[in-house]
Design a protein that fits this description.
The protein is α/β, with parallel strands linked by helices. 25% of the residues lie in helices and 21% in strands. The protein has a single domain (67-239), classed as Vaccinia Virus protein VP39 (Rossmann fold, 3-Layer(aba) Sandwich), CATH 3.40.50.150. The chain is built from seven helices and seven strands. Strand 2, helix 5 (119-131) and strand 3 (137-141) form a beta-alpha-beta unit. It binds S-adenosylmethionine (SAM). S-adenosylmethionine (SAM) binds at residues 21, 23, 49-51, 62, 91-94, 97-98, 115-118, 121, 142, 144, 160-162, 165-166.
């Protein structure tokens, strides 16, 4: 069975099939499947929330130390300039690649809401938080169409490699915008819509321009963009109208 043979049952707003989620290091380009975008290392994407079925392998990819080479988490965090005491939401937190780093950045006086709709991933995250003795993180079981957080609490909402999982991007973004405190920002980092050595199949990705169009529809404007990530765009948005 080819990598994408089963996707059609998950058609979405972009007119493409089930969007892939396994974004850790993938099989080298020369070993890819017959379609050129196939990434056999990622498994099928027929699980809940547009995730692959094999969640163990998915977690492994998300947390693979080699990811740092292209994901550059330290530089991303420096660029975000999080202050101690800040409140951050990580939407689509997965196994928590960002969560522990964010929690350290905001310190004990800050807080991280780790929003994830997949209970099995929340369980993995909880275990990691216990091992790391982190007490400033709240794992939150989100809904597919709602992050399930109170309004007006976040200084920063981080969304990494997750936007293409939302069933209705602009609607979800509108809900995310409500989470911001005055002056708060949404950060979206996601794979460029072109072949890259890691990341989901190209047809599952949301192009930067399409994301920005969705963001405008959701009442958000681009306030900064960073181009040091080799495979992903890195956008910072704020509400168009100051509340
Ligand atoms: C590719 S993973 C990214 C995980 C993490 N952000 C990272 O960078 O390692 C995408 C995550 O989004 C989650 N997800 C899927 N649908 C979602 C939704 N509607 N709201 C929030 N998260 C969602 C998936 O369960 C998965 O954990």
């Amino acid at each position: 069975m080819d990598e994408h043979g089963k996707h059609d049952r998950h058609g979405d707003r972009h007119g493409h099939a089930d969007r892939h989620a396994g974004h850790g290091p993938s099989t080298p380009v020369h070993q890819r499947g017959a379609h050129g975008h196939g990434q056999p290392g990622h498994g099928h994407h027929n699980g809940a929330y547009r995730n692959p079925e094999d969640l163990d392998a998915y977690v492994k990819r998300q947390l693979d130390p080699a990811r740092a080479e292209w994901q550059k988490p330290d530089r991303v965090l420096r660029t975000l300039g999080l202050r101690r005491g800040a409140v951050v939401a990580d939407i689509g937190a997965g196994a928590g690649f960002w969560v522990l780093k964010l929690a350290r950045a905001v310190g004990r006086e800050g807080h991280v809401y780790a929003v994830e709709p997949e209970p099995q991933l929340i369980a993995v995250l909880r275990e990691r938080l216990t091992t790391a003795r982190m007490s400033n993180v709240s794992p939150v079981l989100g809904r597919d169409d709602d992050p399930m957080l109170p309004a007006g609490v976040c200084d920063v909402v981080l969304i990494v490699n997750t936007y293409h999982h939302f069933p209705d991007g602009p609607a979800f973004l509108r809900k995310v915008a409500r989470l911001l405190r005055r002056g708060g920002a949404i950060v979206n980092i996601d794979f460029a819509k072109r072949e890259t050595p890691v990341g989901p199949p190209v047809e599952h990705r949301v192009a930067r321009e399409d994301f920005l169009r969705d963001a405008r529809r959701a009442g958000l404007r681009l306030v900064a963009e960073h181009d040091f990530l080799p495979h992903q765009y890195f956008l910072v948005l704020k509400p168009s109208r100051v509340r």
